[in-house]
Amino acid sequence: MTDAHTAGPFIAAIDQGTTSTRCIVFDKDGRIVSVDQKEHEQIFPKPGWVEHDATEIWENVQEVVAAAVVKAGITAEDVKAIGITNQRETTLLWDKHTGEPVHNAIVWQDTRTDALCKELGRNVGQDRFRRQTGLPLASYFAGPKIRWLLDHVDGLRERAERGDILFGTMDSWVIWNLTGGTEGGVHVTDVTNASRTLLMNLHDMQWDQGIVRSMDIPAAVLPEIRSSAEVYGTASSGVLAGVPVASALGDQQAALFGQTCFSEGEAKSTYGTGTFMLMNTGNRPVNSYNGLLTTVGYRIGDQPTVYALEGSIAVTGSLVQWMRDQMGLIKSAAEVETLASSVDDNGGAYFVPAFSGLFAPYWRPDARGIIAGLTRYVTKAHIARAVLEATAWQTREISDAMTKDSGVELTTLKVDGGMTSNNLLMQMLTDFLDAPVVRPMVAETTCLGAAYAAGLAVGFWPDTDTLRANWRRAAEWTPRMDAATREREYKNWLKAVQRSMSWVDENTAEG
C-alpha cells in the first residue's frame, strides 16, 4: 500500500461469518484499505447438528483485526470506530464470571430444535409467535436453541436463574469480549440480531416477556437491545484499544445497509450458495401472507426503526456447482455462462431446483428438483440456460411476494455475491423482474454496511445522503424483454414449479 492510500482516518469492520472471520479497514470514500481473514472449524457432532467453538472464533477475531491494522500500516489513533457484522441466529451461552462458553455455539443451520419447535407451537403451529416477532417457529432462530442448551447442559438452568450466564448471538459475544469481557464487558445486541431470536417484539423493540416465559428462558441471560449504530463501549485491549465499538448488524441487514437501500422499495439480493433478498419497507413492519419473513432492516441511533421483508432461496449458486460436480456438464462455474450464451432461449426446458424442498415463498419440504418440457430438441446448452433462468425466476417470485405483502413495487434491485459476475444471469434478472439491476464497485457490501453504521455513530460520515453519494455502480442492466414473452415464460415457470410439489409422501422415507 502507498502512503497516499493510507491517509486516514479509517473505520474497521469485523465480519464474523459462518465459515470465517475477517476484518476490513475502510477509508472515507468507502474503499477497502486492507483485509485479513481466517477460517474456523465446522463441528458436526451428529447428522443435522452444526456447532462452532466460540473461543476459537474470539481468538480469530483478535488475529484478523491485528493483521488488518498491520497491513494497512496504521495505528489505533487512525481508526475512528469499529463496526460488527455477523452470521445470524447462531447461539451461545457463557459464564459471565469466567468468560468460558458453557457449550459450543449452536449454528443457524442446526436442526436439533425441530421437535422442540413443534412442541412450542402447541395447537397453533408455527405461527404461534408470528404476530409479535414476524417469524415462524423454526429451528433456524435463536430462542429455541437457548432453551435446548438450558435443557441439555447439566446445572445450566440453575446457573442461568442465579444470573451467572449470558446469552448472545455472535455480535454480543464479540462486543462483550472487545469491551473487556469479565472486566466490565458490555452485554448488548442490536435490533437486527434481536429480531432473529423469536424473542423480540417487533413493535416495541423489547424482549417479549410473554414469549420469554413461554419458552421458559430466564430473562437474566438476555442482552440489552440497542440500535444498530451507536457507541456500545470502547475496545479495552489489543491493537485497537481505546477505539469506540459503534455498530452491530446481522450479515444480510448489513448488506442492505452497505448497498445503501435507505428508501422504501429499495432491495438487495445476495447471490451465493443460496440467495437472500431483503426489501426496505420503511418505518412499519409488514406482515407477510406470502411466505416471507418480517425483520428489522436497521436502526440508526434514536431514529425510527426501518423494517424489511426477507425472502430466501435454498439453491442458486449450488445448482451451478451441481451441474459441474454431479453432472459433469461444465468444468468450471464460469463455463455455465458461455454454454448458456450459445443458444437464444431455453428450448422449452425449465429447471426447478427443489433439491431440499422449496423455500420462500412456498415453504414446501415435499418438493423435489425437476426438469420439465424436455424434447429431443433440447441440448446441454438449453439446460445451462434453464439453470440460470431458475435463479432469476425464483428472484422474481420473491419480488412478487414482497410487492403483494408491502404494496410497494420494486424500484431497483442491487445485487452482490459471487454469481453477480455472470452477465447473462444479470440480464435475465432485469428482464424477468422488469426493473433495473445494479452491481456496486465494492462487492464486500456486508463489511461495508457495518463500517457505514459505525461511521455514522461517531460522525465519521454526517448522514445517509453522504453514504449514498459514496455508493458507486460498477455495472447496470436494464430490461430488454417484451412483456408478452416475459408473461408467457413466467407462466411456464410457474407450471413447472407446481409439478415439483408433492413428490415426497408423508409416509415414504427417502433413501
What oligomeric state best describes the polypeptide chains here?
single chain
Average pLDDT confidence is 92
How many strands, which pairing sense, and closed or not: the largest β-sheet? 7 strands, mixed
Which spans have pLDDT < 50 for at least 5 consecutive residues? none
SS content category: alpha+beta
Strand order of the largest sheet: 17-18-16-15-21-22-23
Total E-strand runs: 23
How far is the N terminus from the C terminus? 55 Å
Morphology: globular
Compact overview of the structure:
By secondary structure, the protein is an alpha+beta fold.
Question: Which SSEs are present, and which pair or pack?
Answer:
Layout: E1 10-16, E2 20-26, E3 32-39, E4 51-52, H1 54-72, E5 79-86, E6 92-95, E7 105-106, H2 114-120, H3 130-133, H4 142-152, H5 156-161, E8 165-168, H6 170-178, E9 188-190, H7 191-194, E10 200-201, E11 206-207, H8 209-214, E12 224-226, E13 229-234, E14 244-250, H9 251-258, E15 267-271, E16 275-282, E17 293-298, E18 306-313, H10 317-325, H11 335-341, E19 350-352, E20 370-372, H12 380-406, E21 413-416, H13 423-433, E22 437-440, H14 445-457, H15 464-470, E23 473-477, H16 483-500
Helix pairs in contact: 9-14, 10-12, 11-12, 12-13
Structure description:
The protein has helices spanning about 55-70, 115-120, 130-135, 140-150, 155-160, 170-180, 190-195, 210-215, 250-260, 315-325, 335-340, 380-405, 425-435, 445-455, 465-470, 485-500, and strands at about 10-15, 20-25, 30-40, 50, 80-85, 90-95, 105, 165-170, 190, 200, 205, 225, 230-235, 245-250, 265-270, 275-280, 295-300, 305-315, 350, 370, 415, 435-440, 475. The protein has 16 helices and 23 strands. The chain is α+β, with helices and mostly antiparallel strands. A hairpin with a 7-residue loop joins strand 17 and strand 18.
